[in-house]
Amino acid sequence: MLKTTLLDGVQPAKFDTQITGNLLLESVSPDEVRAEKMVIGVRNDDGEIYRLIGATKMNSYVNAVEELDDMELVDELADLEETREGCDAIFGEA
């Protein structure tokens, strides 16, 4: 199961219910998510990361990325081989 957290003070995106409905997520603290091997950030309409999703195993990470991609969200780090803002992938609307 993937771990997730909403970041305090940041408005969730209008598509957030799709994320929580499509992925098996366990709500934990931000520190617990950041401790995971791979971290996915999700941006809201204002361009702020509001949700973090953490994965311990590569196949869980890949499944999450594919699911977010299927929701027509775009990974802004797809063509980069580096992390940004502590995330291995950052999804948002195009």
Question: In a few lines, what is going on in this structure?
Answer:
Helix content is 27%, strand content 29%.
Measured between the Cα atoms of the first and last residue, the distance is: 27 Å
What count of helical segments does DSSP give?
Answer: 3
Order of secondary-structure elements:
EHEHEEHEE
Q: Roughly how many Å is the radius of gyration?
A: 12 Å
- For the largest beta sheet, what order do the strands appear in spatially? 2-1-4-3-6-5
User: Which ranges are low-confidence, i.e. pLDDT below 50, for 5 or more consecutive residues?
Assistant: none
The number of strands is: 6
**General shape:** globular
Relative strand content: 25-35%
List keywords for this structure.
94 residues, 3 helices, 27% helix
Report what the structure shows.
The model has no long low-confidence stretch (mean pLDDT 97). The protein is 27% helix and 29% strand. It is globular, with a radius of gyration of 12 Å. With 94 residues, it is an alpha/beta fold. The chain has one domain (2-92). The protein is built from 3 helices and 6 strands.
SSE diagram, text form:
Blueprint: E1 2-6, H1 16-22, E2 25-27, H2 30-34, E3 38-43, E4 49-55, H3 58-70, E5 74-75, E6 89-92
